[in-house]
């Protein structure tokens, strides 16, 4: 999400423009706000292509398609101007990263998440097909991982029953690596002449998209468009390392013969999903990949300017001040603070209606580093992963200054501990967190543990092989944060039906240097040694029985400021 430029309009129709979301061959996409305050994605066709009848026909078809398809899996059309320049359409703004961005940041998805996403996308395609529309360009960039489930976007080359093709002679629609062989060989025909309504090419694209999700690699390799398309027609899809059952389903979807591919109802049935995708902790974690921006930094349209396409010098215009956030409610108020914080972060994260080719969400620029971080199966080591904004600068020691007696719960935590899929191992606390640390942990081997015993948990940490560590900072303060699965109602103590994004209950920062040389464990007890500190108030830790489930434990290196801390390790435990 980028700031508006001086040449950008201030308004499109009745919608005030706030920021840039992305750009592509057809036009620019903006984040906008309707007169009633609703966030919308506004797509404006480029001036230089308004004189091309084919481009205008494609844009009008996109608007008509989005208007016709009223599905829970698509962003609904809000408004459009298709009669005269500037041509634009506005749809619902869907917060969340694209599947391409999520996989680039976090690596290949585990089999359980893949199957849940597979079923949800198949259901979404079935919903679109019910309107007599085939998408024809399903790919990881055109799937937004929204809070309520995946959304299908960019219907620029979608095709309804009886519609004519909008591609140039000899050119097939879609994206190399995700376009079905019969479309490539047929030179633009939806299914090689067997009729546009069966959606077989969409099933192929679904399989190719899930191959990418399961491997973290392009399904038919990389190279120029002709090379990748040749592989899609003649060679098998890349499924190396994929769980056999999932690989079999993907392989069936990308069968070269359209008649051999399963229908969407069969795909859904073979996924065998028994719980909601939005309850998947890993899927929930994708919401943190949005590029949140503070409300006050979003440029807004001042009063008195006319509606319509109004170019404005944004550098000279005085942006309207955003209202101050409401004060925390009286009493404990912890839940209200964090519910509001999560809502703001979700509402302002990157919507990702990107009109760009596969391989980079911003036309290929600026994504190389992101793609290299988080290789398949490896958590992204992203600064600021544990909270909103960049991680605070935390040095090796505290320069002789005493530490604070607590750390502030002043951010949204993105960490979730995921237990092992093996029930026996999970019962013994075996699992992993969805994110890596913000800062390298101290010593050659920093070890942690959490052992549940009755109503308490013994949380331990130590620097093993301390004698092999070249640097032994003195002192080195660590605070441990323990977070329940859900936020809790401050009045009743019962969990809210939403994930807990608070930092959690934290321990007083302790110096582990004293135990450094011997390699002994330093042990804390939850709830006795923990409390929560928010907005200058302190709240006692809740009992384990208040919220059974998977609890997350994050270890933070602390400096001499309650707000200056960075994660160095993450673990968790289960409460039955």
Quick gist of this model?
With 576 residues, the protein is of the alpha+beta class.
Write structural notes for this entry.
The chain is of the alpha+beta class. It folds into 3 domains: 11-93 and 294-347, Phosphorylase Kinase, domain 1; 99-285, Transferase(Phosphotransferase) domain 1 (Transferase(Phosphotransferase), domain 1, Orthogonal Bundle); 381-575, no CATH class. Helix content is 21%, strand content 22%. The protein has 12 helices and 24 strands. It has helices at 53-68, 99-106, 111-129, 181-186, 200-215, 225-234, 244-253, 264-271, 281-285, 334-347, 368-372, 423-427, and strands at residues 11-12, 15-23, 27-33, 39-45, 77-81, 88-92, 133-134, 143-146, 149-152, 159-160, 417-419, 431-433, 445-453, 456-464, 477-483, 486-488, 495-499, 505-507, 510-511, 522-526, 530-534, 537-540, 549-558, 565-575. The strands form 7 sheets. Strands 15, 18, 19, 21, 22, 23 and 24 form a 7-stranded antiparallel sheet that branches. A 6-stranded antiparallel sheet has the order 1-2-3-4-6-5, with helices on one face. Strand 21 and strand 22 (537-540) form a beta hairpin. The longest helix has 19 residues, at 111-129. Residues 156-171, 187-197 and 292-399 have low confidence and may be disordered.
Describe the SSE topology.
Blueprint: E1 11-12, E2 15-23, E3 27-33, E4 39-45, H1 53-68, E5 77-81, E6 88-92, H2 99-106, H3 111-129, E7 133-134, E8 143-146, E9 149-152, E10 159-160, H4 181-186, H5 200-215, H6 225-234, H7 244-253, H8 264-271, H9 281-285, H10 334-347, H11 368-372, E11 417-419, H12 423-427, E12 431-433, E13 445-453, E14 456-464, E15 477-483, E16 486-488, E17 495-499, E18 505-507, E19 510-511, E20 522-526, E21 530-534, E22 537-540, E23 549-558, E24 565-575
Antiparallel strand pairs: 1-2, 2-3, 3-4, 4-6, 5-6, 7-10, 8-9, 11-12, 13-14, 14-20, 15-18, 15-19, 15-23, 16-17, 18-21, 21-22, 23-24
Helix pairs in contact: 3-5, 3-8, 5-7
